[in-house]
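Subject: sequence -> structure tokens, single chain

Hey, anyone have a minute? Need the predicted structure for the following. Not urgent.
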Amino acid sequence: MVLLMKSKKIDTIINSIGNLPILPTIYMKLSRLLNTPDSSIKMISNIISEDQAIAAMVLKIVNSAAYGFYNKIGDLRHAIVILGLTEIKNMVLAASMYKIVKEFKSSSAFNMQEFWKHSTGCAILSRVLAETAYLKNPEDVFTGGLLHDIGKLIHAAYLCEEFNDVVANVVETGSQMSESEKKILGFDHAQTGGALAKKWNLPQETVNMIAHHHLSYMPDTLTKEIAAVHIGNSLCIALRMGSGGEKRVPIVNQKAWEILDLKLSDLEYVMQKSIKLFEESISIMEFE
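Reply:
Had a minute. Here:
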């Protein structure tokens, strides 16, 4: 009953905000197109080209040191052929998320540049964990990791005074942000983020990765995808890849570790690979 009341309160807040951030139309169109059997490289390239800022960002990423191509790639179709549809979709999502974050004004309580780095770091760690655990669709886990803290943006932008109190409480007490949010707001960013992802019509598994990434209470079904984002978030904070406002590293839920069935030696590989990918990624996009 309490959870139902909180859910209704969150939905009321989400629905009352007139200018909610939206995933750019380009990403939604691309997602729909990739799910149709008759999609073509030309059609995908045309959709990306509708947003010149995102198209330019994709080409910038493709031509970065992270990919190491000898010749410069100046054509989107060429980039799609070389990298594949999954990688291109991830790039478009990252570029879309980057645009959303940049539109929010940083406050003294919440640093948007560090937030972007944290979101990127969590996405990379979550995907590498998913790949190492042989999950079927690690690119979907990348999406969950990138968007896992999107609820914090809603709190920072639309519940500004209360969120400043949340951040102050985290600093004073050293508690987890989700705990301080529940204390002051009555709900946390994972719940708000899940509600927003649902409003965006994202797949249910993506909604679940966002809504349950803290595993503060166990969902009906703990999937490997949720477990990967949960562990990825903790590792991201431990490795100081940006900051989502937390002051201490969340404890990893033992069941999440068990369901991924990874060894400690796997963890060392995950961290080394993710750090390299993270450093390459953040060097591409710089806040002005």
